[in-house]
Amino acid sequence: MSEVRHKWTTIKVPIQVKEKLDYLRSKTQKVTWEVILESLTFYEEFLRRPQVRTSTSNLDKLSWYITKLATSFGAYKENPSDENFQYLAKRVDELKKRFNIDAEILLKMAEYYKRTKDEELRNKIKVDMNMAFKQVIKELIIQLLFELVSKEE
Prior knowledge:
- The chain has helices spanning 15-28, 32-48, 50-54, 56-78, 82-99, 104-115, 119-152.
- It is mostly helical.
- It starts with 14 loop residues before the first helix and ends with a helix.
């Protein structure tokens, strides 16, 4: 077996960069040049895939709709008025149109919650509504992840 010979050089870096390299070197149990090479390779790969970077706009959009849905959902639970129901219905409709997510179960449970007078049953419905809400959020996140993976391929 032939031994690989490296030609060595030195580079000047700010002390903060040297400290970061030392930290990563000790954490990964690698020599400094390996840490630098892996970092550069990672950065180079990142630059080759700009569609992954730009897809954060979808994340911003998704975050906005989750916030709108959560606000409407919370307002309805706090005060199950017709007005708050209409806001919630509007958010559910937006999810259907923009993300093709069916969240009608939230509206059905919200209607049932409002009609129910028995406090014990109402509390159970509230728990079920929370679970349905979480399921809708999970579906939105899964859809975003699916879009990101699809763009990479």
